[in-house]
Batch of 4 targets.
Target 1
Amino acid sequence: MTRFFPLTRSRALCAAALALALSGCAVTSGGASSPAGTTTAAAAPIEVKVFVGAMFEIGKNTGDRAGEFQNWYERYWKDAKPVTVPGALNPVFCNTDGVCGSVLGMGKVNSSSSMQAILLNPAFDFSKAYYVISGVGGTPPQRGTIGDVSWATWLVDFDLGHRWAPEENTPGAPTFMPRKGYEEYRRFQINPALVGWAMQLSANTPLKDSEGARNYRLRYPDAAARRAPSVYTGTHVTGDTFFHGPGMSKQAQYIAKLYGADDYVSTEMEAAAITLVIRRSHPTDRVMSLRGAVNFDQGNPKETTLQHLDPAPGETAGGFAETVENISNVGSRFVDHVVSHWPQWREGVPAR
């Protein structure tokens, strides 16, 4: 049964005041008010041309010791306002050219959950975006050296399988077996045409080096370890653990070959997971992984793996500052070209 209450004088005054207030404004779909007879359109999403995802920053985004993000930030976003994204570890920055970036967090879960939140946020339009997953890693001394920068040709997950202790196996046999059912998750080929463009644009980038890194390289007998830094391509292996030692390095190479990928050249902890998240929303033919080598994935012949993992003061590799600068110097050649030739790149990777 509906009950009716008499309209008292106080209620009548309240009702009149409310009607007067509402008569002067209109509520838009965004929840904001504007003068009667007008509407306020919601801000159009930012068309992302290139998204740069780093994994960590040491301190601030500018002005102190640089981590993976600072050199990118100082190049593209010093004047950009941060955009807070619920679910992402850090804000997103975008410049007026459509270059956006963020610190996603270290490891598969941190980085991929941040990427998912950013991709799904309505403030951004990723429908035509290219991605540069950018960070540091380790390299086997048989294939790389401190200060190198590599573009991935393949991303291989180090963890999706069965692994057991060497003493529980036939001596010298592999201690890893892929798990069935993960075939679509454990390996991603980077678009060869995109890699070709990246190398064409960046292979001759001048790379910085340090005296500390030059001296450290001499501890290794391998020709690749002793050479000056360069830009090249190969497989990046994604693992949640900082695997070290010749045994783990051999296993990473074994897994790369088992999956039909190129030679393993860089350790990392995020790219395969981030790529899988992107694939849930968009094609992955515009995804790239860029890594700089700040350490070898194993000790020299005169040290144990534990000594390599926990070096004495003054025994570290050196070259970190130079390497993170090399990464952004190499990567920006690709980013700048895409942005400056956007009409040719917007609909897909152009022919070279």
Target 2
Amino acid sequence: MRDWTLRLVLCALLGAACATCPPRCECSEAAHTVKCVGKDLRSVPSGIPGYTRNLFITGNQISRIGPESFKGLDNVTNLSLSNNRISEVESHTFSGLRSLRSLDLSNNQLAVIHPEAFSVQNQTLRELNLSRALYNYSSVSDLATSLRWSSLGSLRGLDLSHNSLVLLPPRLFSRLSGLRRLQLSNASLAALPNSSLAGLERLEELDLSLNALRTLSAEGLRELDSLPPQAALRLGGNPFACACGAEAFAAWLNGSRGRVRDAEGLACAFPAAMRNASVLAAAGALTPGCRRRAAGADLALQTSYVFLGVVLGFVGLVFLFVLYLNRKGIKKRVYDLRDACREVWEGYHYRFEADSDPRLSQVSTSADA
């Protein structure tokens, strides 16, 4: 009885240290961890103990999160909200998490991301996981706005893999100057447009594997070259075309083996005759062969121009010969046309003078009478 009374007194003094665990959750004060996993929750539970540093709310039915969802959780450093079917993240949702360093929103259905959804005080956030989280391309545009508006200059890792990005919005990462690792694998990327990788001044790792890159245009190569020299690249699993038109990419790849960590394993997907062949091996023979083909194409084009010139010259000669044979008739028609034009002009001139001189106008009127 005495121990129980002492415990109650200690709980009253410590308050949050003896806080109860939310229903359907598991709490460990020693590990500073709360887990609410697969409990069919419809919202973030209230009453989460203040000692919590690691908060796992995963595998539930939560559709929306906002600023009221995480009040009083100043000590949370790692927050996992994966696989909850979250579709909307309001502005300043995580602003109250003053110590937040890692945020996992993977495997959700984010359709609406408000402009300041990822604003965190003191720029504490270091890792953001949005793998398999974006519902459609509209949410990609929302994300671009949110990343520009939110204070994420201290973010170190960003995972956007397994999303249907197709094309990266311009300057998507322009405010993430401290980013070190960027995961863009299996994101259906077909190209790297201008300014798509702008602002990544400290990047150390970029994963572009398992996308839809058949080659990299001059614009895309400039984007990769704009990254810091120490940035390691991964390009494996893309359906590269080892055909004419990819000479610039082939030359760039041969000169970038130190940066492209999986360069030796890159394989051709097109044409069928070169499928699974090494891109580096194919690249060595690509440029000379394409030059010969281009030279043959130029010769064929020049031959076509010569033939066209001969045909046009012959048509011109025929036209001049026809004109010569009909020179008398043409001359007569020209004279007739000239006389007709002169008569019309003289009639207009006479009428103009009659209208401008009242006396001629009276003579004309009396003559008509």
Target 3
Amino acid sequence: MRIPVRFIASRVAFYLFTAWAAITINFFLPRMMKGDPVSAYMQRAAGKITPEAERSLRILFGLDKDTSLWQQYIDYWKLLFNGDLGRSFSNGLAPVGDVIASALPWTLGLVGIATILSFLIGTSAGAVIGWRRGSKADAIVPVSVFFSTVPYFWLGLIAIAVFSSILGWFPASHAYDKGARPELSFDFIGQVIAHGALPAITIVIASLGGWILGMRNMMLTVLDEDYITVAQAKGMPNRRVLWNYAARNAVLPQLQSFALSIGFIVGGTIVMEMVFSYPGVGKLLLDATNAKDYPLMQGLFLIITMAVLVANILADVAYAILDPRTRQTEA
């Protein structure tokens, strides 16, 4: 299977331009906002910072008033190439990269697994429901869509009230027991699974409706194609026609949506992490916004944007592999 060079070059050029635009906007956005991180930090310090210390902080954060905006922009790119995202005011001037790295595994573990599960379950269920159109299986669609229309906030609170407060099956908040220290042990892993099960199930239930409905509708369209009729006329088993022909083509539009979902995994589900007090990137972004921690906000926005771009690149590659028409059109 050969992917044309022109297809690859056009995609690389597009995503390089998009990455440059995202980084540039990420640089200028905090500087367009009222105030700046150093001024906000000085207000919290209540006059305990000397003018010399303020000057040092502005140089540290690339906000020196004696430096031109263009030079600040160049310096920002140099810092990025060195892997330096700045310092977080709300975390004792700790490196932003370290602060994000401490929260990222929790979000990838919770939202990542939940998103992948909801996609696999929803897409598979949608394919089967579409194949058996007109059967009792169609009743699953409105039920799943109903749960998708319920806001995450309410769904999370209902889950806590029922499965934590009343039944006591799952812990209500946090990623592990209070007083426990993160370590590689069966006891700690069990705590993480127990605390993450309820928010993960909630995310899966809230996301299933969209995947089921989208896949079912695409299956109804694909099943009317001639190649499906020909495959059935040749006497191929229904299972093979379903998965090798119908589902394989019907899933293509789902890949782009899945790519966006994978990209936004890094951003986390802010409302869900807030409801369950889960220490992920979403809650970290919320805390940074409340604290006006611009360097941390800037680093989080950059990481989220890059994750979405990488996910879309992977989706384009998968789309080109599964659908030859894409490669031929670009070529």
Target 4
Amino acid sequence: MTVTPSDTSTEALNQDAISAEAELDFAAAMGDDLDLAIPEEVPTADDPSSRAASRNDADGVGFTLDEFASLLSKYDYNFKPGDVVNGTVFALESKGAMIDIGAKTAAFMPVQEVSINRVEGLSDVLVPGEVREFFIMSEENEDGQLSLSIRRIEYQRAWERVRQLQKEDATIYSEVFATNRGGALVRVEGLRGFIPGSHISTRKAKEELVADFLPLKFLEVDEERNRLVLSHRRALVERKMNRLEVGEVVLGTVRGIKPYGAFIDIGGVSGLLHISEISHEHIETPHTVLNVNDQMKVMIIDLDAERGRISLSTKALEPEPGDMLTDPQKVFDKAEEMAARYKQMLLEQAEDNEPMGVTLD
């Protein structure tokens, strides 16, 4: 069949009519009153009046293009190692947690970085959906992913807290979780601390201290060397010192004898009876006068809270020089009387050392 030009025009008109009718049916179905009329004046793309209208529309938004660029820059994050950022936990996995910190790719926190303390799993610390601070550990990897840590934040804050406690000369209580040949191990604010054997003051064997809570004082706090050293003895001495005074007579028990003197237990803390403070007479070795487990009276002659030391004397209690060698019981019987004389002597010395008043004419 041959199609004439007039037939082609008629077919085209019919198609236009069908399209127009379809558009009206669509508008009716959408419930919109669509205005399909073509405006008499349609501005072209290069019409200056069209660009002016666009600028006017932008002005009506409420902020300038510079302000818009500034707003976008707030979301152009530049994450660096060492930064602390807020993030949202959105997935807990076997090897770590996925964290949304606003970067192009979700950040990852390994399970070993979840806490400074030992935990059974991520769910002990993290809850999906929670927002908290994270430490950025490294640059982005080849996949654009950052590594995060909570442990680093806790570590930094723990050292800050420990330094403050040391500055305040605070007494803390901590549980012994292990012992070794050198002493005992504890945790302070999540940090591992060490108590040297010489600073453990107890009648228990070291191995029996595990799970015991001990009062402790700080000896050394060094973050750079990761050294946290504490003293049980100092804490006990300080506590005892609060109830002791120089010139006081106390009952003690000999716990150890060294060439330079004897260690006397006076109610849970040790004081040193130096060889030079045993008697006015010369003594070759403390063993010639004292025995381990001897009970005796001693007088306090010095309290050094900073070093945790109590210095003792029986020499000051001797009625006559050498009585500790010939008749120690006489020394103990007269102890309180001799201590009173000692205190009076200290008082007179203090008065003599007071500066003289100056009178101005």
